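Troubleshooting log. The previous structure file for this entry was overwritten by mistake, so regenerating from the original sequence record. Sequence copied from the archived sheet and checked twice against the printout by T.R.
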Amino acid sequence: MRLSPADFLRMVAGLASGTALEAPALVDVIETARADEGLRDALCQTASDLRDRLYGRRVFFRGLIEFSNYCANDCYYCGIRAGNCTVNRYRLSQEEILQSCQTGYELGYRTFVLQSGEDPYFTDDLMVDIIREVHSRFPDCAITLSLGEKDRASYQRFFDAGANRYLLRHESATPEHYAMLHPAELDLLNRKRCLYDLKEIGFQTGAGFMVGPPGQTAVHLANDLVFLRDLQPHMVGIGPFIPASNTPFAHEPAGTVEDTLVMVALTRLTLPTALIPATTALGSLDHKGREKGLKAGANVVMPNLTPTVNRKDYSLYDGKICTGDEAAECRVCIEGRIRSVGFDIDLSRGDHLTYNP
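Regenerated output below.
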């Protein structure tokens, strides 16, 4: 149901002051913001103001290292899915990962994000060795992992070795919609179990979802917000769906920047202290997309430290930007963009406000 402007602004103000809306009311807010540019702008401004009150105008940098594009899974939307035989597969060695960290450290980054497909080559033992070595060489840095679904014992080992954060997007909190996006062997209940395990172990935990994949409705997006409110993650990654070649969704339409901004803003209002990236996917759809994400309440960017010879092969979707930039060029470019829209650079670890080491 479309809301009147007065009702919409009243509900948005309530969210900003801590009122919890249930899914039907959130659906109304989502549909109204999608349909009215002026109200959408008001929503984004409210979210940005709330972020400013808690974090100021700081934008936190994370150095991203995509160390393997092998994946055992066959998610229908993903460009590095196991069934995509056109991908040029690669794995970084432990020394290459450490050298990428060194490059980032010299550029001032104090958080490294080690991300890969679900690659069985990187066993728990090998990952523990890598985490320990990164922690040993860069003890003042946070280590974020994004390795997919594991059992609780594996997550505990990674935490004990020195990892601090873990990113695992839930993708859809609605079981029927989750099943539309993933093969039968992947189960939403297990994905949620992983997220709750990570939180209980002590990781700063990140969830998240795409905006605009096939079959998604405003009801699904409202369910995502309700799930996030229940989970209370420290980080939330939100980006538009962008189709990838040689996948089942290759010819589906992309999500939109506008709808993604609505969900970034509503996530900020639902989880005021969350760390929310202005994603590369936003920048891939719109050359000002990351700046628009910051204006909607985001406060994190993730410059790429992956060696340029490999970067283009970590292609989760078509048209990904920044695949040819050297690490230093990437930082300079993003810094300039951030400052151009009135934000400040923060190269610290950028922990969640509730983090107590």
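The longest helix spans residues 37-55. Archived copy saved in two places this time.
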